[in-house]
Amino acid sequence: MDTGAVVQDFASLSPPYLLFLGDATLLAAAKTAAGVHQWRPEHCLGQLRINEGNVDLGLPDMTPAQASARGAKTMVLGVANPGGVIPESWVPTLVEALANGLDLASGAHQKLSSVPPLKAAAVQFGRRLFDVRHTDQVFETGTGVKRTGRRLLTVGSDCVVGKKYTALAIERVMRARGLNADFRATGQTGILIAGRGVAIDAVVSDFIAGAAEWLSPDNDADHWDIIEGQGSLFHPAYAGVTLGLIHGSQPDALVVCHEPIRDRILSVDYPTPPLLDCIAANVAAARLTNPNARAVGVSINTSRMEGAAIERAMDQIERETGLPCTDPIRHGPDRIVDYLLATS
Amino acid sequence: MDTGAVVQDFASLSPPYLLFLGDATLLAAAKTAAGVHQWRPEHCLGQLRINEGNVDLGLPDMTPAQASARGAKTMVLGVANPGGVIPESWVPTLVEALANGLDLASGAHQKLSSVPPLKAAAVQFGRRLFDVRHTDQVFETGTGVKRTGRRLLTVGSDCVVGKKYTALAIERVMRARGLNADFRATGQTGILIAGRGVAIDAVVSDFIAGAAEWLSPDNDADHWDIIEGQGSLFHPAYAGVTLGLIHGSQPDALVVCHEPIRDRILSVDYPTPPLLDCIAANVAAARLTNPNARAVGVSINTSRMEGAAIERAMDQIERETGLPCTDPIRHGPDRIVDYLLATS
Q1: C-beta atoms of A239 and B244 within 8 A
Q2: Are residues A192 and A288 in the same domain?
């Protein structure tokens, strides 16, 4: 994160937000903005579209000046651009936001601070540039020392299976029940939703576990950190990140995320693991740093399924695993939260 | 690596070497130089000491000009300095080496190229600065695609247990038997010994497995890569690095390194794992990307043991594991190489 010319330690984004949708014409391109709006509607004041952009999140359209007048503190770039670069056509609007007193936050590969007019405007107007995919936070290597408070980590049979949304859904339900729970983000979209966190796959590998330890520090005995998982122990590219995150998180509870109809691992020619093997491997890994770690539920992604097949899949998984199974987006995560609380 | 002002892809150091021992007065401080000399004596032309330095590797003392005249291509900074910084008192000698046509190679935390007079001299004299702890190599994420050739990886029950020396000893014996084998370095000392490699714990975590895949590319069917392991699946700080390295290496054969008398994991308050658990966990991890992975031996570090205890430990481990066990430094790695070849 940069404050003007001064690079500082990582800190939180300031809501409320103006969501920048750029010139996106497909909702898929504005997935990050849609996620921020879905999970943090109370932080979203308005949306800003430029040129041919016509994606509509149903928020009021605002200029940076209008958003600033209504109290917005940060403009969130919630739109993906090919290659992760910041196109020149966006720069005047981004400068206008800085000039109107807004910080900028982006999950793009290219750093905001690497664009000279943005860097200059941030200095001139005393605004902050948050490049959430990158961090200047200096991490230590992991210590393995047990921390106070409780932790739940989502893990998965593969990438892109619902680990982030499962964690967010669990946090929402726990908070609605008056419990003391915080979502902890480990990827750029999660960070833009939560307003803080660490992109764990961008950390130098010596510090994976240490960064995960930093992310969920000592807390009250009844506090739950609900930590967003990354990758999968069964993905040949990313299992190292997953394992370091598991070890540093010291989870008391694991929720295993799974798409029942997926039979191949994403982007590589590998089979998805049998669910029981997946649960066993994650629990065994977690027990290195927390001997009491256990699985408390299976979260299934049924977005490509319909009808009775969904019910059948849930029943079968519950019989097979002895754990509650639910699609947290379709049916809510309550079954898992009930089981977690009843057995904690 | 920098060639003058131009940052290039990672490439090999050029032997022969002049070993810079600085002002070290303890052999322990010159451990890297001692390692390069022990494992690559044919690459070491001479040593260079300055000021009060009196560590002696038994090589001829040479100035940069003398070394250059005898054909040296690179001066290797083989001495550790507190904090990993390059002291000002070394700079004139390092510039003198560049002026005499030598490249510089260092495993220090501080980059050679971050020292302005060295950067300037490298440009002026057209020499290269190798900061082996850092790399400008761009890695891809892992693919998990099986590569041709054979691979042996050393793994361990802990850090600092002999993984590098075991791999180097196995490479030496295999080459002496006329086999086609290459040591593949994954840490800075290993890189200075091998002249190439990647400091895997300095790679961004998304690319651990991809960097390991890059390190041991497709090769002849009878070729063995002997890959230096890092960390341990049982170390709460580093297991993520270890797992990514295992997956990217796709080892056919694992040699498990172990110190029989160690009962606590280095730097953290964790027990060392039972040897059988350690072997099983590493083989299981390796089978994700190579279903034929198997353990072929146990390499023990007996440097803190003596007398009959060593023989007893080896016998007990062989009975317990059914695998050959040896201290490769004390007794050579032949028992393991014999078993590997007899069963491959």
Answers
A1: yes
A2: yes
Do A109 and A182 reside in the same domain of the chain?
no
Clarify whether residues B336 and B187 are in a common domain: yes
Query: Is residue A11 very low, low, confident or very high in pLDDT (cuts 50, 70, 90)?
Result: low
**Domain holding B8: CATH number?**
3.40.50.720
* A253 part of a folded domain: yes
Nearest partner of B269 among A65, A304, A289, A270, judged by Cα: A289
Residue where a domain stops, chosen among B131, B161, B193: B131
What total number of domains does chain A contain? 2
Placement of tokens 């961004």 in the chain: B204
Tokens of A217: 């520090």
Distances (CA, A) of B188 to A334, B107, B119, B167, B200: 50, 5, 21, 15, 9
Would A145 be classed as within a structural domain?
A: no
> B157 to chain A: which residues are within 8 Å by CB?
none
Mean pLDDT of chain B: 94
Nearest to A152 by CA among A133, A179, A192, A191: A179
Q: Please name the member of B142, B238, B240 whose beta carbon is closest to the beta carbon of A237.
A: B142
Question: In chain B, what residues touch A206 (CB-CB under 8 Å)?
Answer: 201-202, 238, 241
ipTM of the complex: 0.92
CATH of the domain at A202: 3.40.50.300
| A143 found inside a domain | no
For residue B141, tell me if it sits in a domain: no
Strands, sheet with A17-22, edge to edge from the N-terminal-most edge strand: A6-7, A2-3, A128-131, A103-106, A74-77, A17-22, A44-49
Cβ contact B240–A234 (<8 Å): no
CB atoms within 10 A of CB B214: 18
Query: Which string of DSSP letters, residue by residue, matches A258-323?
Result: E-TT--B-TTSS-BPPPHHHHHHHHHHHHTTT-TT-EEEEEEE--TT--THHHHHHHHHHHHHHSS
Residues 6+ apart with CB under 8 A from B116: none
**Partner residue facing A201 (CB), from B206, B245, B269:** B206
- The answer to whether the CB atoms of A268 and B144 lie below 8 A apart is yes
pLDDT digits (tens, 9 = 90+) for A217-260: 999 999 999 999 999 999 999 999 999 999 999 999 999 999 99
Contact A14, A3 (CB under 8 A): no
Which residue type, as a one-letter code, is found at position A287? R
- Where do we find the tokens 């998982």? A229
Per-residue pLDDT for A83 more than 80?
no
The mean per-residue pLDDT over the stretch A274-289 comes to 98
Is residue A47 domain-shared with residue A171, that is, in the same domain? Answer: no
Q: Which two tokens stand for residue A263?
A: 């039979």
Task: Band the pLDDT of B11: cuts 50, 70, 90.
Answer: low
pTM of structure = 0.94
What is the domain range of residue B298?
150-343
Residues A160 and A111 in one domain: no
